[in-house]
Amino acid sequence: MNIIENRFYNINKLIPKHVTILAVSKNQNISYIKKLYQLGHRDFGENYIQEIVKKYEKLPKDIRWHMIGRIQSNKLKYILPFIHLIHSVQNLKQINIINRIGFKHKKIINCLLQIKICDEKSKSGISYQEALKVLEYLEHNAYKEMKNIKIIGIMGMASFQEFTKVHHEFSYLHKVYNEFKNKYGHYVLSMGMSRDYKIAIKHGSTMIRLGTIIFGHRQKPI
């Protein structure tokens, strides 16, 4: 068993069964993804559309690809035919594009709304109030023109600061998640990365995004 397989094996033992591990393979070599695939892992996350397309073409087709980076609306058409889940939806323009392409391919595209829970400029997302407007819009139009997109939960990124603040941010996102789940039936809460996944799980995360802790430092992507 090599170092990547050993890291994944050790982490997997610590994660509750109801929590999905999303292996963030951004800028990682395809051979590393294959190693986890051979262990039975199927959920991989990427930040860039061009990279995810290249990897999709070269890897087994039963991999569940997750788009976790900023959405480039003009390039969505390249990943929507095969994408499993988009984590970073932030506005109605993106939603309408996704719905339109989903209709073209006769597919319902599952998505998460990315909620901003910290004040760092590098972390994007929409406010609670903006998310409510999006969900209400979809609720009113779900049986009309918005049949090919489905919001199944929310995603958020905590600040890279002291863990006391991270606890507060994850606690807030969990409260938002519970409210949306009770009203709209969402069931995915994607929060927690290599640095703070243990805190995220304590606050109810159902999906954690782990990159460095599994793969180590980023390598050449292909």
Brief descriptors of the model:
222 residues, alpha/beta, 8 helices, 8 strands
Write a brief structural summary.
With 222 residues, the chain is of the alpha/beta class. It is built from eight helices and eight strands, in the order H-E-H-E-H-E-E-H-E-H-E-H-E-H-E-H.
Report what the structure shows:
It is a single chain. The chain has about 220 residues and is an alpha/beta fold. The chain has a single domain (about 5-215), classed as Alanine racemase (TIM Barrel). The protein contains eight helices and eight strands, in the order αβαβαββαβαβαβαβα. It has helices at about 5-15, 30-40, 50-60, 90-105, 130-140, 165-185, 195-200, 210-215, and strands at about 20-25, 45, 65, 85-90, 110-115, 150-155, 190, 205-210. It has an eight-stranded parallel beta sheet. Strand 1, helix 2 (about 30-40) and strand 2 form a beta-alpha-beta unit. The longest helix is centred in the C-terminal third of the chain and has 22 residues, at about 165-185. The radius of gyration is 17 Å and the shape is globular. The model has no long low-confidence stretch (mean pLDDT about 95).
Taken in chain order, the helices and strands follow as HEHEHEEHEHEHEHEH
Gross geometry: globular
Secondary structure class reads alpha/beta
Instruction: Say what the CATH topology is.
Output: TIM Barrel
What is the H level of CATH, i.e. the homologous superfamily?
Answer: Alanine racemase
Radius of gyration: 17 Å
